[in-house]
Write a structure and sequence with these properties.
Strand order of the largest sheet: 6-5-7-11-12-13
Radius of gyration: 37 Å
Number of helices: 27
Helix content: 40-55%
Mean pLDDT: 79
Number of strands: 13
Low-confidence stretches: 554-598
Distance between the termini: 63 Å
Structural class: alpha/beta
């Protein structure tokens, strides 16, 4: 038995006794294409790529007996949460609370028909709502709605026309929603759902954490019931915090206590829900319970009258008729709408993919763009703000047994009941309670900070992207911060591609496996792990030069090119037109060769004999080429041919070879397709066969030369027999 302080030995690695033997010809690209006919590419039309009505795929297969009850329970639970979150997130969007209910209802109706995710709950999300609010506040600040009023106590008092302000803000929010929907619909129609791939996880993590901080600050002033100016742009969050602390003495205690208790209770119960989720069939809808209790207390105590608490006051009952937003405002919000449309889409798709993987189905990224585009266009006509999804609300829908978007439609029905019947009942509700509900739901986004140390250990570049995007979004604002994070992320990619990894390869004995080792004798194998384009062709040339430098050791002198210092160079012959012939005693200064890869070698240069005869480039990691890359490869091949070194390519993908053909790589007679091999091993076997053939040929030529040199062939035969006899005697 091992002592307590002893280190346990790691378990031995399993031994794999199986092996395989493959017998096939050595293939270059030309031979392979001649033997195996290439299939023509099938290109889908735009109509085939778009699934206009995904509902027709899953609704006919709906299992009523197995799924309906689960969808009803899930829909009711999600609808209750969605009602509260819609009202709360309306505060972030800077519109009256009642319009949050509309935003939690209308988008679901169209996503049910056009969406491909079965589990996401469509509606408002705090980050997107805050981005909408920043546009609304910048275009309709309080200062634009000041009116003068006179009464007995004060003359010429300046007041805010709240009715006009709220109407203008609703119009701006709905117009922005319509424009975002149009952009998303265009993106989906153009099949550019891949755009979300550029929002890497570290970038999204840093951005959403910064957005959570922005949301916290924006809701903090509501919890404290402290009035501040509406700041927007660079350092706006800092200015808001400073003003909050300057006016903290004006805090309304009733609102502060109600908000603080709501935050504590909601976070505690949510923690219990997470800890005992396997034992609790349905999560406790704590937001609904707290809201009902807070509304009852506010109504019973009359907090607005007795303690000057901020309450919701008015929620419209029923639905408003559709109205066309103001298209003339598009030009003022075009830039912001692009970022909002991409962020809203990215959040929805990322959440949708989580549950699609969990439940073994797929979602169509381009169709999701179309679904949310149609949803936001439809919602914009009914005075809503931009819809996406929320992880917390989607988690409720999935964890309570939701199987399909039927649960979403049922949740929309719950919201509809709230709109029609419960509007007046919720008017005494304190705004601080709604703000506290928003803050309580930010825990997951703030916990992303704990991922940074782990990310730093895994990949320092990704950790830097996370921190940079977070800080930029806090300082510059969400729009500029997201743009800065994207640019910074692109720069890291460019730097990594421009200075890619490369290494020399060697074969594991008796296998076709090639790993990073020292160079072969007389053959250099090089792997370049990057696309080849204008930004890194210099790096390609540099790595080739570095790889073969120790073998070639070429140096330039005043009289031409020589090989390694002190070595004989049989290929070098002095030029007849030597400059300054009357000064033969000038010492020859050796300098490292500087090859101009963009120009042909001068005709007069006498090329030395070099210690390698072949260079194999493993291009399996080359994903694309541009015109500059093709031209550089052609020059490299020709320049090595000038020094009697053959260049071979291995493992190129088909589309890369097609690009070489289109760019005229094979137009030169000296560059043929048979220098391209299917694998590195094919190239090496080809070279080995060539060397063996050359050795046999050299031996035959040497024998013929000896026969020709001898006057009497019999003398040659006798000499050979004497040598054989001497060899036998030596062995005895």
């Amino acid at each position: 038995m091992a002592a307590p302080g002893d280190r346990l030995e790691p378990p031995p690695l399993p031994e794999y006794s199986c092996s395989y033997v493959v017998s096939r010809p050595v293939y270059n690209e030309l031979a392979f294409q001649q033997q195996y006919e290439q299939r023509p590419k099938e290109r889908k039309t735009l109509r085939e790529n778009l699934t206009l009505l995904p509902i027709l795929d899953w609704l006919p297969k709906y299992q009523i007996k197995e799924w309906l009850l689960s969808d009803i329970i899930s829909g009711v639970s999600t609808g209750l949460v969605g009602t509260l979150q819609g009202m709360a997130y309306a505060l972030l969007a800077a519109v009256p609370v009642g319009y949050g209910l509309y935003s939690a209802f209308f988008p679901i109706l169209t996503y049910f028909i056009f969406g491909t995710s079965r589990h996401i709950s469509v509606g408002p999300f705090p980050v997107v709502s805050l981005m909408v609010g920043s546009v609304v506040l910048s275009m309709a600040p309080d200062e634009h709605f000041l009116v003068s009023s006179s009464n007995r106590t004060a003359l010429n008092t300046t007041l805010i026309d709240f009715a006009a302000r709220d109407a203008a803000r609703v119009l701006i929010a709905s117009t922005l929603t319509l424009l975002v929907g149009i952009i998303q619909l265009i993106f989906g129609g153009l099949q550019i759902g891949f755009i979300v791939r550029y929002l890497a996880d570290p970038l999204v993590g840093g951005f959403t954490t910064a957005a959570a901080f922005q949301v916290l600050v924006s809701q903090l002033k509501i919890v404290l019931n402290v009035s501040t100016k509406n700041y927007n742009g660079i350092l706006s969050i800092i200015y808001t915090l400073i003003e909050i602390f300057q006016n903290i003495g004006n805090t309304n205690l009733a609102d502060f206590i109600a908000g603080l208790l709501t935050i504590i209770i909601c976070m505690a119960v949510k923690e219990l829900n997470d800890r005992f989720k396997h034992k609790i069939p349905v999560p406790i809808p704590i937001e609904v319970i707290v809201t009902i209790a807070a509304t009852a207390i506010s109504y019973g105590v009359d907090l607005e009258k007795n303690y000057n608490a901020g309450i919701v006051k008015s929620i419209p009952s029923g639905f408003l008729p559709p109205a066309m937003p103001s298209v003339s405002l598009f030009s003022e919000m075009l830039t912001a709408s692009f970022s909002i449309s991409v962020v809203a889409y990215a959040i929805a798709v990322s959440v949708g993919k989580v549950y699609a993987i969990k439940h073994d189905y797929t979602i169509d990224g381009n169709q999701e763009f179309i679904a949310f585009g149609i949803s936001n266009i439809f919602s914009g006509l009914f005075s809503c703000f931009v819809a996406t999804t929320a992880l917390s609300r989607t988690a409720v829908q999935e964890s309570t047994g939701g199987k399909t978007q039927v649960a979403g439609i049922i949740s929309a029905g719950v919201v509809m009941i709230a709109i029609v019947a419960l509007g007046k009942l919720l008017e005494p509700l304190q705004k601080s309670v709604l703000a506290a509900v928003v803050i309580a739901n930010l825990k997951g986004m703030f916990m992303q900070v704990c991922d940074v140390p782990h990310l730093w250990r895994q990949n320092k570049t990704d950790a830097v992207i996370w921190v940079f995007t977070c800080m930029a979004s806090i300082i510059l604002g969400l729009d500029l911060g997201l743009l800065a994070g994207l640019v910074f992320g692109f720069l890291t990619v460019v730097l990594r591609v421009q200075f890619p990894s490369w290494n020399s390869l060697g074969s594991i004995p008796s296998t076709d496996i090639y790993k990073s080792t020292k160079n072969y004798k007389n053959v250099s194998i090089l792997r370049f792990s990057s696309p080849i384009f204008y930004g890194n062709v210099d790096g390609l040339k540099k790595c080739i030069k570095s790889t073969v430098r120790n073998l070639l050791r070429l140096k330039a002198t005043k009289n031409g090119i020589i090989s390694g210092a002190g070595s004989s160079n049989n290929a070098f012959e002095p030029d007849e037109d030597i400059e300054n012939p009357e000064e033969p005693d000038i010492p020859t200064k050796e300098i490292e060769i500087q090859v101009d890869w963009n120009s042909e070698l001068p005709v007069k240069v006498n090329v030395p004999k070099v210690p390698i005869h072949s260079l194999v480039l493993d291009c399996g990691a080359v994903s694309f080429l541009d015109v500059v890359g093709v031209r550089s490869l052609r020059v490299i091949v020709k320049e090595f041919q000038r020094i009697d070194v053959n260049v071979y390519f291995a493992s190129l993908q088909d589309h890369v070879i097609e690009k070489l053909e289109k760019c005229g790589f094979f137009n030169d007679n000296n560059i043929r397709k048979d220098i391209f091999f299917m694998t590195v091993h094919d190239a090496v076997l080809h070279l080995q066969n060539q060397v063996k053939s050359q050795e046999v040929q050299d031996s035959i030529l040497e024998t013929i030369a000896l026969i020709q040199d001898c006057k009497d062939p019999l003398e040659l035969m006798e000499a050979e027999m004497i040598e054989e006899e001497l060899d036998v005697q030596d062995e005895v």
